[in-house]
Design brief:
Length: 158
């Protein structure tokens, strides 16, 4: 099983931008932690980060066409304004969970509304990097896996 993880605007600045809000770990640290966690679960990861809305939308479409079924997305600032990104998630056919490192409800009021959340089956906010692990675990734990093939029965001839 493969999970796509998308990070939006400014998340490439993790570790440098507002460490009092986002901490000191970097995007590379997050990707390393997720890769290790997913490998232990028998899953693969595919990562993408962009500060550009159109590139994120193009990536969602490409991954959907490639057969990626599960998506963890932190839309960053697009969360609060991007109908186009919301529609991209909704139209992708992927099961998605929205994640935010900080608690958006403890921040500025404009951050309290997520346009993209309605296209996702859940939102995890304020749990730091652990939110990504929880989102990935939820998607893996609730994905129907093909039933193992039944062993062929030997029939006796009479």
């Amino acid at each position: 099983m493969e999970i796509g993880i998308i990070n939006g605007p400014n998340l490439d600045r993790l570790g440098k931008r507002e460490p009092e809000v986002y901490g000191h770990a970097t995007l590379a640290d997050l990707e390393k932690q997720l890769t290790s966690h997913l490998r232990k679960r028998g899953a693969r990861s595919r990562f993408f980060q962009s500060n550009h809305e159109g590139r994120i939308i193009d990536t969602i479409a490409k991954w959907a066409d490639d057969g990626v079924k599960l998506l963890v997305i932190n839309p960053g600032g697009h969360t609060h304004v991007s109908v186009a990104l919301r529609d991209s998630i909704a139209g992708s056919g992927m099961r998605a969970v929205e994640v935010h490192i900080s608690n958006i409800y403890k921040r500025e009021e404009f951050r309290h509304r997520s346009v993209t959340a309605s296209a996702c089956e859940g939102v995890i906010t304020g749990l730091g990097f652990a939110g990504y692990l929880l989102a990935a675990d939820h998607l893996l734990d609730t994905t129907k896996r093909p039933a193992p093939k039944a062993a062929a029965r030997k029939t006796r001839r009479r």
